[in-house]
Amino acid sequence: MIKEIEVTRTYLKMTAADELKPAKIESDRLQIHQVVECPASFYRYLYTEVGRKYHWCDRLNWTDIQIKNHLKQPNISIWVLYSMSAPAGFFELKQHEDKSVEIAYFGTLDEFLGRGLGKHLLTVAIERAWDLTENYIWLHTCTLDHPAAMPNYLNRGFRPFKQETYYI
């Protein structure tokens, strides 16, 4: 018997750049770079490893061609956090027709949890998103995500604007 799980998805947004409450880590051991020509295998690795515990599954079955087609869209950008040259997390930004920017995917690899890197990475994701828009930035999270996700979003200045419930 398969048991359904009730999930609550919360949408959050930030409507002005000065709403950001940054939490950066100043360290020469950390770097965040945009990956301009991201190989499908590297994207799949980031997506799979960051989302493993949180039921990220919508892109698991994407072929290399689907990933490449997604990443070559001019409104998509991928940014990777490196800790001492090892990939530690990533975020994906998506520019929408209404001039908003979505932080579509965001997170750190399991081995890097609990070090404050998520706060740092989210701060940079928000800054990069504001580089792309003057309208607003948004994201969504759900009750399957890491327990620190929602507090991080709220502490950086996001405000909830919509909720929905679904079952998996």
From TrEMBL:
Residue stretches making up the N-acetyltransferase domain: 30-168
Gene Ontology molecular function, alphabetical: acyltransferase activity, transferring groups other than amino-acyl groups
PROSITE patterns: GNAT (PS51186)
Superkingdom to which the source organism belongs: Bacteria
Pfam family, one: Acetyltransf_1
Alphabetical list of InterPro entries matching this protein: Acyl_CoA_acyltransferase, GNAT_dom
Protein name: N-acetyltransferase
Biological source species: Chroococcidiopsis cubana SAG 39.79
